[in-house]
Amino acid sequence: MTFARAAALTGLVALAPGWAAAQCYTAADLARGIEVEFEGGDVTSHRRLGDGSIEVIERFADGSDPIEFRANRGVYFTSEWSIDPSGAPIPDSRLDIEFPVDPARLPEPVPGASWTGRTVNAFEDGTRREETTSVEFAEAPPTTLSGCDYETVEARIRYDWGDEGGLSLVYDYLPALGTAILRSNQFDGDTLNETAPVAIAPMTK
After folding, report:
1. What single DSSP character describes residue 190?
2. Keywords of this protein's UniProt record, alphabetized (predicted)?
3. Which one of 59, 97, 112, 184 has the lowest number of neighbouring Cβ atoms within 10 Å?
4. Is residue 139 part of a domain?
């Protein structure tokens, strides 16, 4: 997997007329797919599917099973499951999230917008669990990846399971791409897990 190293060369571009500028990706590139590399070696791919949803696959440097997601605009998650090395779903790992409205009709990720509603976790074994999902969008500084600055909207997502606690996540939504990059996650009572994206490139397969 080859990632652009333009970030390290940005300051030299003006001094080298023959060099190409850093590649800045757009929503059109999601048809083929893009990959984001993080500190520590984790890689997440984002690809737009025919129904307009985003396929997100997280692959971990520690060898843990990859996780595949479906999400509207990369922030309204509708399903997830673990996959084996061949890409096949691992049995009994699927979770579907049922929204009270079509996720495509939920608020656009713009600063000041928000949504809170009751959703349902539907597990593969037939178990169901209600939750309250909250999504809030706020202004954020640009995200720089592989020498390109991307306008960024911070997305704060909260899943509340009542007496069972909850999960809080922070994403960087990039309007130019139409998807979001994970920055942190924390289960109630657990340590905050933070990560930093360092590079972006087209998917290689």
Report:
1. S
2. Signal
3. 112
4. yes
Element (H, E) at 6: helix 6-9
Report how many domains make up the chain.
1
pTM over the 0.70 mark: yes
Residue 204: band (very low, low, confident or very high) from pLDDT cuts 50, 70, 90:
confident
**Secondary structure (DSSP) of 35-90:** EEEETTS-EEEEEE-TTS-EEEEEE-TT-PPPEEEEEETTTEEEEEEEB-TTSPBP
Is 20 within a domain? no
Instruction: Count CB neighbours of 113 within 10 A.
Output: 15
pLDDT, tens digit (0-9, with 9 covering 90-100), for 25-74: 999 999 999 999 999 999 999 999 999 999 999 999 999 999 999 999 99
Which residue range(s) make up the domain with 142? 30-202
Evaluate whether residue 137 is within a structural domain: yes
CATH number at residue 34: 2.40.360
